[in-house]
User: Which sequence fits this backbone?
């Protein structure tokens, strides 16, 4: 990756970070220590991805996920991962959503989720595979 590519990635990362943070703050509190509703990871590892650790299940509501997905209209090569990090689920397998402009990859063990979250449907979602 060239310096120009690095600069572009950093610029987009920052813009998208601020947009995601602004959106999620309408629905809950961002907190890195599990005391809030979610945590938008604030480290840029050089990928075209943002990572949200979800501390409260309501952040997986389909309307919130749809709004998060809409942020990618301007950034079609990027993705946003929303991973379950709810206190008390530490022994659960890794679960969550990988949100892309054209699809949502759903890796959720629905039988483990509490009601009504196990019945949420995400338009454009497909189950994850071993290649995701």
Assistant:
């Amino acid at each position: 990756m060239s310096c120009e590519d690095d600069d572009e990635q950093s610029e987009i990362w920052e813009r998208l970070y601020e947009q995601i943070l602004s959106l999620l703050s309408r629905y809950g509190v961002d907190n890195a220590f599990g005391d809030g509703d979610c945590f938008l990871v604030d480290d840029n590892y050089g990928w075209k991805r943002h990572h949200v650790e979800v501390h409260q299940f309501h952040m997986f509501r389909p309307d919130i996920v749809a709004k998060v997905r809409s942020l990618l209209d301007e950034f079609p090569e990027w993705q946003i991962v929303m991973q379950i990090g709810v206190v008390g689920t530490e022994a659960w397998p890794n679960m969550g959503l990988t949100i892309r402009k054209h699809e949502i990859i759903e890796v959720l063990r629905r039988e483990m989720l509490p009601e009504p979250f196990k019945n949420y449907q995400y338009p454009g979602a497909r189950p994850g595979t071993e290649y995701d």
Summary: The chain has one domain: 3-127.
